[in-house]
Predict the structure.
Amino acid sequence: MTRKRRRLTAVLAGLATLGLATFLVLTAFSDNLVFFYSPSDLKTKHVPFERQLRIGGLVEEHSVKREADGKTIDFRVTDGSNTVAVTFTGGLPDLFREGQGVVAEGVLRRDGSFLASNVLAKHDEKYMPPEVADALKRSGHWQETSASGNAEARK
Amino acid sequence: MAFATQSVSLGRSFLLLVYRDLRLAMRQGGDAAMVVAFFVLTVILFPFGVGPEPALLARIGSGIVWVTALLAALLSLDRLFLADYEDGSLEALALQPLPLELVVLAKCLAHWLVTGLPLAVTAPLLGLLLGIAPAGYGALVLGMALGTPSLSLIGAIGAALTLGARRGGVLLSLLVLPLYVPVLILGAAAVEGAVSGLGATPHLLVLAAIALAALPMTALAGAAAIRQALE
Amino acid sequence: MNRFANPTRFMRISAAVLPAIGWLTALLLVVGLVLALFVAPPDYQQGESVRIMFIHVPAAWMALFVYANLALASAAGLIWRHPLAEIAAQEAAPLGAAFTLVCLVTGSLWGQPMWGTWWVWDARLTSVLVMFFLYLGYIALVHAFDDPTRGARAGAILAMVGVVNLPIIKFSVDWWNTLHQPASVFRLGGPTIVLSMLLPLLVMAIAFTILFFWLWLVRIRSAIVARKLRSLRLAGADDFAQLDASGGKPAGSYPS
């Protein structure tokens, strides 16, 4: 084998392994390699009960209710097609509000509700002053934040 | 046919090199046994450290096994090229017809056979000690089998880069451990996925992909590092 | 390219432009900070905390940009064996590590009030942390050899291997569900940030870029001077050693 030929074989072999690696990664990405699950995932995939996991989505409008003890909060997380009820006791981050993205850590209970031990606010990629947000809403140009931000972009 | 004979002789010298390294490892008192002993002993320390509560151990078991496997693989890395570098045989290896890129891969294969493979075989036993749910064993062994080659390959780059460096061993872990993070995340997540019923396949696929991508990268970077070390 | 690669000419040209770049950096930083801290409006969701972004985002961009420069200089040093490229690569690394640290710390300060946590192990944060360790590993590797050329070459190979991490950092927010928000500026379909916030952000980004180039030039210049000094000293030590051999005073410790 000449030197040139050998080099060509080496390059082809290297490219072939890289190609195969890319193919495997792409196959895996179509599946569930995630930081959190969406409410739809909870329905369609067999997400186990009573195990620590994260769910993410938007806090449904008008769903946040404080219980009588003043510390426990009930709300629903939605991704547009499915919702899940969440119960949480503790301090909420500043960005937590209705219509905003949220990631909750906790366990899925057998009745399908989610008991959160920790709630993180997920920020979206929009930055604007309040006046602009109001104006957009008034003029009807407001685009609702995509559920759980980047998760939507992949679909 | 010159073409065929030479490619045969390339394959032959590759295997010969692997065989040589394996024999050296056996001769020098069983690297494999030492690595496995370290692996088992360190894992056994955890129940003493965090307490023997079965539920807790079962939950963090896959992480313990993987972190310890990482350290065990790291432990034997600094000698991957160092012995050959110090006694001059690395120079001889660089001069023979087998390209240095393949020399590096041959040494990685030998390293994997004496560390990664025994680790993967021992892992289910340790899973048993830590009480990992039986559903996770397949993912643990498969994940180890697919992940430990990456440990050898990525580690080889670090080992080649630190040849002749001061405090080579500590430096090697500083270079290599951050690069091991993806393997650790995916390996532990595969077990978790299998136990929880979500499936381990995507994690295993990406582990395999990392190993494949590391092959050409290690061959190139490792050979370049050895060349500049021999200059 | 080669015209600038001559160290003497590099020293002359860089000495000429350095003051101008320094003043430009200062001006842009002042303008950028005033715009970011006083002129830009508070965000409709984040309120005043959004101002952290004007430091955080440029620092994050710089962390990636400096790494790209480090890798390019490393490649040039390996291919053309040019000492100036080797020096440039080595002198970029501490700057990159500093920008990465600023990015991590400001991100953490923003995350506590906004997300409700200082740190999460999502793909974006983890991959940036790995890059921080890559910078540290590079710096440690470069200085681990008695022969500085070997350190430079080993570091260059490591720097080029680490390039794999750059696309992972950039696209981590698109490939995985991360807590970190996706890109607001460099995205398909245009920025999702209003002009009154985008403008200060861009001014700060340009200021950080020029700040980096200014610091980089200063560092390269002092490294060249240090090398010259060392070779002069070594030459002097040779004279001293001859003196020593001919019965003079003991040579004492040689500069390392």
About this structure: Residues 3-29 of chain A form the longest helix (27 residues). Strands of chain A lie at 52-59, 65-66, 72-78, 83-89, 101-108, 114-122.
